C-alpha cells in the first residue's frame, strides 16, 4: 500500500504586535483541516512569526523548509496563501526550482494546488506572486505615506505597543515608565547594558511583547526618542511628539551620547567583573593609562594557581592582585558615603550648571582628541606630545562628564549616598554601578609596590601582601 503524501505546513504572520502568534495558529489550524480532508500525512509545521513581507528579517524557518524539501522529506507544502509562503521574487524563484527538482506540490488553503513541475504550474505561480507583490507594494506606499504625515504632525504612528505606554501609544503606563527613567539614568551614568538586562530579567520584568530583556533591547529602549516626547523619522528627530514624555530631554540626550560614543560596543559593554578595570590609574605611566582586569599566576594559594588581578593597559610593568586592592577601595568608598554630609553630594536643582554649555564643551573635547590623533598621524607632533595632550584632554573630558551628570541629576551616587544602609545599597549594586560611584568620588592611582615585607609578616588564608601606601586616593568631592 502506497503511504500518503507527507505534507509540511508553513505559516507566517507579518505583524504580531502583542506577541501572541494568533495569526500563525489560525493558519496552522486551517492547514491541518486541509491535510485531513485530502488524506495526507502531516509531517511537520514550520512557523515564522512577526516577519514582514517586505522587511529584511531572515526567515530561518523558510530556509529549513527548503532544506527539508531538498533532502526529500516533504511531498506537499501547505500554506494559507502564496503570499504567506513567498514574500519576494527571489524567494518565489528558489521555491519553484526546489519543488520542481523534487516533484513537490504546493497546496493553498485560500487557493488551488500549484504544480511547479509543469510549465502551466510555474506560470500560475509566477502570476500569483506578481499580483501579491503588487498588493504589498501598494500597501507599503499607503502605510509609509500615513506614517510620514503622522510624523510631520507629531502624532502616534501605530505599531507594536511601545514599552512605557499603553496600547494607544499616548497614555503613560506608570510602572514601566519608572523603569524607563531608571534605565536611562543608569545608562547615562555608564552602567553596563548587559547588567541592566540581567537585573530586569531577575526581577521578572519583560518587554512589551513578553520576551526577556537583552542588552540590545535595553539599548534600543534607552535610545528611543519617544521617551523624551520627541518623534523620529528615518532615525532623525524631527520635532516634538503629541504624547507625554517619560524622561527629561536633556537626560535622554546624555544617555544617547554615552551609548553611541566611539568605541562603545558589545565587547566594551559586557557584564563587568572587575571594579577597577578602566577606573584605577597606573602610577608608573604619565599618560592617564588605566588598569585592566585579567587572571594571573600566583603562589599565594599554592604553586600554579591563578587569581584575578589588575595590569596596566600599556604593559605588564604594574600588576596587582585584585581582591585586596578592591577591598581597600571599597572600604574608602563606604567610609566616604557613611559620613553625615554624604547626602550633600547630590546637588539640588538650583545648583546645577547650564547643561547645553557643558555638552558643547564635551563635544569640543572629543573633537580636540580627534585632531590630536590626526596631528600625530601626520607627524606634526611627537609621541610624548600626543601622550601629554591626550592625558590633559581625558582629564578635562572626565571632569565634564561628571559635571554633565550632576547637571542632569544623573548622579551614580543616587540611591547609595542617600540610602538608609549604605553598605547594603553598595552590596546590591552591580559592578558597573559601583565603578560609576568610584569614578564620581575619587581617582584611584595604583603605585609601584614598596620592596620587602614588614618584619613578622606571613601569608594568611592564602592572601598575598598588600600595602595601602601603594595606593593614592585623590578625592573628587
Overall helicity: 40-55%
Strand content: 5-15%
- Overall 3D form: elongated
Spatial sequence of strands, sheet with the most strands: 2-1-3-4-5
Largest sheet: 5 strands, mixed
Taking all Cα atoms into account, the compactness measure Rg is: 30 Å
* Euclidean distance between termini CA atoms: 87 Å
Question: How many extended strands?
Answer: 13
Averaged pLDDT:
79
The H/E string reads: EHEHEHHEEHHHHEEHEEEEHHHHHEE
Number of structurally distinct domains:
4
Structural class: alpha/beta
Unreliable stretches covering 5 or more consecutive residues: 15-22, 150-155
Describe this structure in words.
This protein has 477 residues and is an alpha/beta fold. The protein has 4 domains: 6-137, Rossmann fold (3-Layer(aba) Sandwich), CATH 3.40.50; 174-259, Putative Large Serine Recombinase, Chain B, Domain 2 (Hect, E3 ligase catalytic domain fold, Alpha-Beta Complex); 272-339 and 413-477, no CATH class; 347-410. The protein has 14 helices and 13 strands. The protein has helices at 22-38, 60-70, 82-85, 89-102, 119-153, 174-188, 193-202, 215-223, 249-259, 322-337, 355-377, 383-408, 422-428, 431-441; strands at residues 6-13, 41-49, 76-79, 105-108, 113-114, 230-233, 236-240, 281-282, 291-298, 305-312, 319-321, 442-446, 471-475. It has a 5-stranded mixed β-sheet, with helices on both faces. A 3-stranded mixed β-sheet has the order 8-12-13. A 3-stranded antiparallel β-sheet has the order 9-10-11. A hairpin with a 2-residue loop joins strand 6 and strand 7. Helix 4 runs antiparallel to helix 5 and helix 11 (355-377) packs antiparallel against helix 12. The N and C termini lie far apart (87 Å). 28% of the residues are buried. Mean pLDDT is 79; it is low at 15-22 and 150-155. This is DNA invertase Pin-like site-specific DNA recombinase. Residues 6-154 form the Resolvase/invertase-type recombinase catalytic domain. GO terms for molecular function: DNA binding; DNA strand exchange activity. Residues 162-265 form the Recombinase domain. InterPro entries: DNA_bind_recomb_sf, DNA_bind_recombinase_dom, Resolv_N, Resolvase-like_N_sf, SSR_resolvase.
